[in-house]
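#struct-pred

JT: dropping the chains for the assembly here, can someone run the whole complex?
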Amino acid sequence: MSRIAALIAAACALAAPALAQEDQVTTFELDNGMDVVVIEDHRVPVVVHMLWYRAGAADEEKGSSGVAHYLEHLLFRGTENLEPGEFSEIVAANGGTDNAFTSYDYTAYFQRVAADRLGLMMGMEADRMVNLKLAQEDLDTEREVVIEERNMRVENDPGSLFREQRSAAQFIHHPYGTPVIGWRHEMEQMDLPDVRAFYDRFYAPNNAVLVVAGDVTPDEVRTLANANYGPLHANPDIGPRERVVEPEHLAERRIIMRDARVSQPYVMRSYIAPERDAGDQKKAAALTLLAEVLGGGQTSVLNRKLQFETQNAIYTGAFYDGTSYDDTTFGMAVVPAEGVSLEEAEEALDTAVAEFLEEGVDSEQLDRIKFQLKAQLTYARDDVNNLARRYGAALTSGLTVEDVQAWPQVLQDVTEEDILAAAREVFDRDSSVTGYLMAPEADAQTEQIDSNADAEVGQ
Amino acid sequence: MMMRFALIAGIALGAATTAQAATDIQTVESENGFTAWLAEEHSIPFVALELRFRGGASLDEEGKRGATNLMVGLLEEGSGDMDARGFAAAAESIAANFSYDVGDDAVAVSARFLTETRDEAVDLLRQSLVEPTFSETALERVRAQVLSSIRSDVTDPDTLAAESFAKAAFGDHPYGSPYIGSLESVAALTREDMQTALHNAIAQDRVYVSAAGDITPEELSQLMDDLLSDLPETGAPMPEDVDVQMQGGETVVPFDTPQSTVVFGHEGIARDDPDFFAAYVMNHILGGGGFEARLMQEVREKRGLTYGVYSYLVPKDHGPVYMGRVASANDRVGEAVQVIRDEWARMAEEGVTEEELERAKTYLTGAYPLRFDSNAAIAGILVGMQLDGLDPEYVLTRNDKVEALTVEDINRVAKRLLKPEALHFAIVGQPEGLQEVSAPGQ
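RK: done, full complex below.
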């Protein structure tokens, strides 16, 4: 069901393997160390201007969770040269739209405007890279806004609370176990010193990636970027990203979350999994295909075994996104059919995966998946916004332009054996989290009795 | 990934391509009498195709609520001599994507396929629309998914708020109940009901077609005849209109959750009303236009009461409404509601300023061409324009119409459309302090 699929997919993010043709993409570096990617699409006189920082929630200091995202909000609250809100006002007055987003490994700001407004966008974006100026009143109001955002996205949604709990159990030490939006008690304490420290440490041209996509030439972008971003000084203290490393996992973790707002229980299983590394994407490619083989739609292995050959589930899925700076996760979900318990659903999942490892990959299915991946190269050219995002995410996750462009071929080269080997390596119960999301006992029992009412009449 | 500001799609103004791209919209007539709008673009070897069948879930027959939704969910679950997985495998093997969706006023079918496998893709799509099998196993599987969704809706604050508002606005009209149906109605649906729903909703007399991408007018003409000629000529009559009569005030749906979710609104304005254009621009200034809109400024930027607040015109075919959404912590939602009421009244009384209107015009005319940046987007817009009863020439005149609006036009329509006394709030949560805050005189 699309609703359920969306719910769980949002927690896991699907792999997105499509790419631009190489002749569409040009890259260069400014003298101050800023990386630039230009993706040309001359069909319509529009550009997307995106500035990505190699800094996200996983780069926060312990104890100040949520600061990367709070800072992202505050970048709209004024600089030495712009009043609070004026940035978006100017974008809108030019017919454009703007926004920003924060993840574990990056923070990104973007505007979509007519192609001839690109220089103006660069000028404003360069300004707020170095000239942020914040009033206490704005800090206080924006803190309320991000707490309401947390209320909306997380506190009001048991599925999101469940995801936070699972991630916290999955990563024993690494910051991927801390929510991007922040833990509530730490969000309430966020203030200027944390924000300032994060801004001063990470917001610099040599820690940024500029991606421009649309109706521009690389020469135009080079000229405008040199004029607007060129004068900014590199921060000499920017070095390699240093994050704590997960210790060896020795015990599988099992969590049960009960919430009265849950109507449809489900079970999630996730394992620590390697991510795409620069020059070494083979294993990640095998895992990307594994997720497709196991959980990619109607013809997938889990769907076939749990929804068609047996009627254990009403939804199954498998999730892996290899674009990540550090080790990530491979996840599977089962929403059980009525009358099937979560224990039975979990057992059915384990049985299906064990059978798959015995039976191997259906070569016709793999051919279809690879053909679809090839077709994605065509379809992707229709959506340069999305292409811009892929480059930005890859380049702020430790990958290079060469890696991004090699990725489609790396995917095509994956063999059935590679997929099985990757599955055997990753499906290690010691590194796994199994989570049950369900309604509280009493409610569950009531529902059970209700649904069995007819059967119970005779007893 | 955290977005600073999640955009909620409002109702677009029909819309179309840029002035220069507009000349590229061709009207294509087929031999069998079907019409399509085409934006021909051969640089990428694929086509985006959109079909709309007017009527949608509101064609559900008495006692069969949820039939159209379930039927649409079954179109890709087996047709011709293929079962669900056979159909999926066939589509995968040519990398064609089909999606089937249902709304109050239309069934939407979207397709994307490569030039090299266009014929196979059209065959599959035709088969799903003309010869769905509605097998017993597929029916039971999809029914179980729908029933699960209905059970989830009972504890979803957004759905609860939307349903509460719809009930208050539309009563017994199909718009007043969720088109997914109820546990009882969906449990009772049969294979025959699916056949009936198919013939009611998917017919030649209500289809609209658009395409964008690598296809010529001749090819599109043939495609339409291949795809649509075997559909029934006529479907079910359209539903009756409904008179939206909102009572002002609040409906609280008690729900144990920290943040209250609110849907508000009252009667709206029809898409073909001469004042619709002015109403659209007025709403942009009041609550539709991102951070600069008054509601966003007052509720979020100045007071930090919410992450997002929006208002939007919903010109449903048989009963237009003007709606909005906000979510705020239980102990702050009363203040948010009051601020929205005040802004609604202020706009009705004072209207907009010259400066606000100028800003809105600059944005709306500048943003217009930016909508048309992909074949997929263009195909969607072209079919939407047809549903809205617009001409292809609209794209040439649309920005002029925006420019021609005066402060007097906007303010007259604000007075006509905004009814602060009828503004109704459906609130799901444990709201505190509502009475005190919203009492007159405070």
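JT: nice. Residues 2-228 of chain B form a domain with the Cytochrome Bc1 Complex; Chain A, domain 1 fold (CATH 3.30.830.10). Residues 1-23, 436-442 of chain B have pLDDT under 50 and may be disordered.
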